[in-house]
Design brief:
- By secondary structure, the chain is mainly alpha-helical.
- It has one domain.
- Helices cover about 60% and strands about 5% of the residues.
- It has a two-stranded antiparallel sheet with strand order 1-2.
- The chain starts with a helix and ends with a helix.
């Protein structure tokens, strides 16, 4: 919505009466999630490797994995808490762990490499911006 409204304000003004954003993730440079911070350092490598290998989707939803994760986390709560704390900005000291199984089963789920690379770019640039394809492709796509 933020991107659309900034790129085509007249269109969105004519179509949207009210837009409410509750804590939207537009600036990610302050994230405490270590995997995202590490990805931000190497986003160009991740993008190039994904394209060369033909990997476009990561973490596809999978019933078997979700069931296995739920079973493992019911036994190894401290391990799951550690994993969850490393990939999200939730805090197990504040957030109730009984709901963490739902989070662990669904995060990340159905993410494309492009989304992860874009998050990394937003962290590195410390500003809200379009996906960076590189100078040549950016000129082709965005002018």
């Amino acid at each position: 919505m933020f991107a659309g409204a900034s790129l085509k304000p007249d269109y969105f003004k004519s179509k949207i009466n009210l837009f409410v954003a509750l804590a939207p993730a537009t600036y990610l440079s302050h994230t405490s999630a270590q995997p995202l911070q590490e990805a931000a350092k190497h986003w160009r490598l991740i993008r190039d490797a994904s394209l060369k290998l033909g990997i476009y989707n990561l973490f596809l939803p999978n019933w078997w994995e979700n069931t296995a994760i739920e079973g493992i986390c019911s036994i190894m709560k401290s391990t799951c808490k550690g994993v969850l704390d490393s990939i999200t900005t939730t805090t197990t000291e504040v957030d109730e762990f009984s709901t963490k199984n739902l989070v662990i089963q669904n995060v990340p789920s159905g993410a494309g490499y492009g989304s992860l690379v874009h998050y990394a770019q937003l962290i590195e640039n410390a500003k809200f911006s379009r996906y960076n394809h590189g100078p040549e492709k950016n000129m082709e796509k965005y002018g």
